[in-house]
Amino acid sequence: ECTLSYGVLSRMTQFKDKAAKREADFVSAGLFTYPALQAADILLYDADEVPVGEDQRQHVEITRDIAMRFNGRFGDTFVVPKVVTPKAGAKVTDLQEPTAKMSKSSSSEAGIVYLLDEPAAIMKKFKRAVTDSDGEVRFDRANKPGVSNLVEILAACTGQSPNDVAGRYTQYGPLKNDAGEAVVELLTPIQHRYRELMGDRAELSRLLRVGADKARNVASRTLQRAYDNIGLLPLEG
After folding, report:
1. CA–CA separation, 164 vs 155, rounded Å?
2. In Å, how far are 166, 224, 232 from 236, measured between CA atoms?
3. Which has fewest Cβ within 10 Å: 4, 7, 65, 172?
4. Are residues 97 and 68 in the same domain?
């Protein structure tokens, strides 16, 4: 936290948005300093690339600044991570409010697709997705946010470019249907694996222990490197 200034934290887009929504409600210091915690989670594990959507790019940029500032003062300690954003799907918006990002904190679940949604529920949400009245399918975030969101979701699921996807459609109905089916297909193996793990809690616990051990080994080396470079006593244990 000492590598960040009040000014930088106060300019964080997510803090400003969430604080504004809460207005007179309690706004915690934890929300304000959260970028420092998020940066620690990244730097602790020597991540060299961080895949994020557009809404998280600012957080990774701050993480890069922290790493470079710390390294400049104490010597090479942290890997400076690179921001990696997908060509399609970097910004997925609410199916009912296509100018707002898709988020679990949305006022309505009708515009949100959850990883564990049943196929029928997913298709229903896509068929009811908000578009517009002019009927033309094209990728234009500024003027056609609803249609562009569907196009980008389908592009992200199929590995195509948004413009190529848009060029294949002349009506909204088939676009909505295909986007929904693509999401169902993408989520099917994830849901299958989830059910497998939830049905075998012993195996789930084993995998969690293995993962925790691997993470702990990496984190302890990074933390020891930071201690050494700062001049603190070595870690015990």
Report:
1. 8
2. 58, 10, 12
3. 7
4. no
Catalytic choice (16, 104, 125, 176): 104
- Residue 176 falls within a domain, yes or no? yes
Structural domain range at position 61: 1-85
What is the secondary structure of 114-148 as a DSSP string?
-TT--HHHHHHHHHT----SS------TTT-HHHH
Q: Are residue 162 and residue 189 in the same domain, yes or no?
A: yes
Check whether residue 199 and residue 145 sit in a common domain.
Answer: yes
How far apart CA 136 and CA 171 sit, in angstroms, is 7
Q: What is the mean pLDDT of each run of 10 residues along the chain (237 residues)?
A: 79 74 69 88 96 90 95 96 91 95 88 98 98 95 97 96 97 98 98 98 98 97 94 72
pTM score of the predicted model: 0.83
Q: For residue 104, indicate whether it is catalytic.
A: yes
Whether 101 is a known active-site residue: answer yes
